[in-house]
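Ticket #385: bound-state structure for flavin-adenine dinucleotide.
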Amino acid sequence: MKTIVIIGGGSGGISTANHLAYRLRGSISSGDVHILLIEGSSRHYYQPGFLEIPFGVMSETETYRDERRMVVDGVDLIQENATAIDLKNHEVATQKQKIRYDYLVMATGARYDFDAVPGMGESTFNFYSLDDSVKLKKALNNFKKGKIVVGVTSMPYKCTPAPLEAVFMLHDYFKSRNMLDAVSIEYVYPMPMAFPDKGVSDIALDMFRDRGINPSLNFQIKSVDTAKKELVSRDGKRISFDLALLVPPHRGSKLVEDSKIGDPMGWIPTDRFTLNITGYTDAYAIGDATNLPVSKAGSVADAEAIVVADRISKQVTGYEPDTMYDGSGGALMVTGLGKASMITSSYTQPPVFMPESYSYYWLKLIYNKVYWNMTAKAVLSGVNE
Ligand SMILES: Cc1cc2nc3c(=O)[nH]c(=O)nc-3n(C[C@H](O)[C@H](O)[C@H](O)COP(=O)(O)OP(=O)(O)OC[C@H]3O[C@@H](n4cnc5c(N)ncnc54)[C@H](O)[C@@H]3O)c2cc1C
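RESOLUTION: The complex was predicted; output attached.
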């Protein structure tokens, strides 16, 4: 009997577990393979929905489902937190048990480190968790006039286009309420560009000009002066705000840090093609948890899940694991309430930004609905590759 353990049942973990269950269904029913998914949360969140809540595009309850509803037959769900990993001895500890594995997949995502920016939690908003998005929805609804700042505190962060999307949605939100004369929007970014890729940055800056949005680039937020309502940069500059939406600093999971298998920020050293945790052919990392030079995005996590499921299926059944990840990922990037673009990239292809259209927006709305039963359930396993 071979035991495959996946830690983390978010976007990447659920997709890996379900793909494996489809591929190995014969071995599972004959008792040769056992798939265990360890997930600490009872809810599976569709995080792109958090950005939609403040603008009323999605409701709170549309952004999560019971984790138990997400697994397909053949996957055993353990609803506990993993507390330690021993890669050398093939062992995972949870709050209640120790589990030996033959193959391991780390899909533990990222966590937010609000303490890294003093003052941030108290006086600013964000759209990176369900609770925060709900609070932001109320704050926007009550906002009558003044300056709204959308800022990124540090790199990397989940869904690179998300803060740009927030700016464009804010613009259209206040336009639809006839409030653009009373509200100004400023975009604060730590890099000299508005996006890590210059091509996309140039397009975004043109779109800012058209919409009267003010970019403040190369501004590394060090702290928030809550009394004065100002962002303070590492070199002492200040930006005032009436309402600030800040993307929190991200780090790897505490489990990774506690088990000492990550870099100083808690990202797992991962082979860019095989997705093996460096030095271990029987252990993999996918999604936000890795140190790979790709976007921390659900599309990436899913593309990686397919590669890892294929590799492990081959290893389990005695074949050479020859499937490689090519760095591909993509995002349907909202450019307003009614328009979107699509950005795709890979290790060899810099991001391509498709002209904005209603069709992409429509596709995004559809994807918000089909995610649950399509991507997460891996129903196209073996077809969409
Ligand atoms: C506002 C917002 C908008 C976004 N928009 C997009 C978008 O448009 N397109 C896109 O592709 N991506 C988007 N993303 C990013 C996407 O949601 C993430 O990149 C994706 O969820 C990563 O998947 P993951 O499996 O690596 O991590 P997650 O989905 O975060 O899952 C990690 C899981 O691990 C579990 N876990 C952690 N530690 C433990 C432990 N010790 N024991 C047990 N379980 C543990 C957690 O509970 C969690 O369920 C967005 C994200 C946000 C926040």
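RESOLUTION NOTES: Residues 7-13, 38-41, 47-48, 50-51, 81-82, 107-109, 127-128, 158-159, 162, 253, 255, 287-289, 296-299, 301, 331 surround flavin-adenine dinucleotide (CB under 6 Å).
TICKET STATUS: resolved
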